[in-house]
Each structure stands twice: as structure tokens, then as C-alpha cells.
Amino acid sequence: MFVNIVLVACGAVLGVLTRLLLSNWIKRKWPMDFPLATFLINLTGSFLLGLLVGSGADSHIQLLIGTGFIGSYTTFSTFKLESIELHLKKKHTTLFSYLGLSYVCGILLAGLGILLGHLYL
Q1: Has 94 been labeled as part of a binding site?
Q2: Residue 98 to residue 1: CA distance in whole angstroms
Q3: Any known ligand binding at 74?
């Protein structure tokens, strides 16, 4: 049990640091109303989690990478907060694009990751 906790904690530290650095870099490089940083982070996380699951990795790797790293790298709460902010700013076209693209692309990329994991890993 202790090993599992350490694996998740180590993965989480790396995931949150990666998200912080990548998010700040994307926001500086491409400033816009559309929450591109969270969008790209959540989509890459969906793909990576699908790839991990599709690969059939053992439980320790799934805890380290899936639960720890990807769990803290992706962010459902920021996605929801940014959606509410877009609504409050009356940027409804951006809001609906963000919601639709996030859900549809996230599911597609997770599925693609699972498929590629099964085929190549």
C-alpha cells in the first residue's frame, strides 16, 4: 500500500509541474480568449491515458503514470471554471466551441490512444 501511495505522489508532482510549465508557456506564446492551454493539456492527457490503458501496463505503471502523472497533469476543475468565465463574459461562441471540442476530441483521442496501445505497445 505504501508503495502505491509513493508512486501516485511521485507521478502527481511531475504531472502538476509539467502542467504548470506547459500552461504558462502556451498562454505566453498564444494569448487568446479560447482557453488553449487547458484544452491542449486535457487532450494530450486523454490520449496518453488511452495509450497507457491500451498498452496493458502493469498496475504500478498505471498508478505512477495514469493516476499520478496524468491525473494531476489534466484538469477538470480548470476546464469547468474557464467555461463559467466564458459564459459570464458572454463569449458564447468560444464557450460552445471549447465545450464541444473538448468533449468530442477528448473521447476520440482517448479511443485512438487505446487503439494504438493495443496495436503497438
Answers
A1: no
A2: 39
A3: yes
